[in-house]
Specification:
The structure is a single chain. The protein is α+β, with helices and mostly antiparallel strands. About 30% of the residues lie in helices and about 20% in strands. The chain is built from eight helices and ten strands. The protein has helices spanning about 5-15, 30-35, 45-55, 65-70, 120, 130-140, 140-145, 165-175, and strands at about 95-100, 105-115, 160, 160-165, 190-195, 200-205, 210-215, 215-220, 230, 240. It has a six-stranded antiparallel sheet with strand order 5-10-6-7-8-9. Strands 1-2 form a two-stranded antiparallel ribbon. Strands 3-4 form a two-stranded antiparallel ribbon. The protein is rod-shaped and about 135 Å long.
Length: about 240
Amino acid sequence: MKYGYMRAKTRAVAAATGAALVVVPLTGAAAAALVTDDSSGTGTVLDAAAAYTSDVADIPEVTTAAKKSAYEIDTPTVKVKVPPPPEPEPEPVVEETTAPSTTSGTTTVSRSESTSSSSSSSSSSTASSANVQAAISGSAVIAEASKYVGTPYRSGGSTPAGFDCSGFVSYVYGQLGISLPRSSGAYYSVGTRVSNPQPGDIIVSPGHVAIYAGPNLQIDSPRPGKTVQFRAIWQSSPVYVRVT
C-alpha cells in the first residue's frame, strides 16, 4: 500500500467523524495497523490509536538522579546544648585603707569598691568615708581594728601577718585588754546580746564574726583571697553582742 493512499484514508476517516486531523508518528503495532489493507475490513485509524495508547503505557518511567534529588529533602540533625545555671553573684565589698594625716594627726580613709557586675543593686549598701571616720573617732575598738585594713585572710591566723574572722576580732579586743574566743561559734556565749548595736559591738552569724562599725557597716576578715576591710553588712538576721 502506498503512503499517499494511507494519508488520504486517514483524512477521510477524520472528515467522517468531524474530528480534527492529527498526524502522530506511530511505531510498533500502531504502525502495522495503519498499513493494513482496507479490503480486509480491519486496521482502522481508531484501532491504530488504541494500539499506540497500549504501546505508550508499556514504556517504563525513567527517573534520572537529578530528577530524583529534586524530591529529596535533607533534614539536618539539631543538637541542643542546655547551658549550665548561672553562678550566684558575689556579695558587694567595700575595701578601706587608712593612712595617718600629716596635718591634723587624724586618720584619713581612702575607699575602693569591689562589687559584682550589678553595680546599681550594691551602691545603696556600700559605706562612705565619712561613716568610717565617724566610727573610728567614736569607738576605740574600731580605731584599733582600722589599723589592720588590708591584712590578708589566713585560715587559723590571729596576728597581723594574717587573720581569719575570729582571729581578727579576738586580736583587736586583745589589744584593748579583753580576751575573746578563737572560734566563731563560741561568740554566741560571750558578752550581752543587744538589739541596738553600737560601733565596736560584735556581729555573730553562723560561721562568721565581724565588728559592727555603724549603720549597715562592719569591719572583718571575710574569706580566703580577701583582706581586712570595711564593707556593708550582708548577714541575714545576725546576733549583736556587746563586750565591756
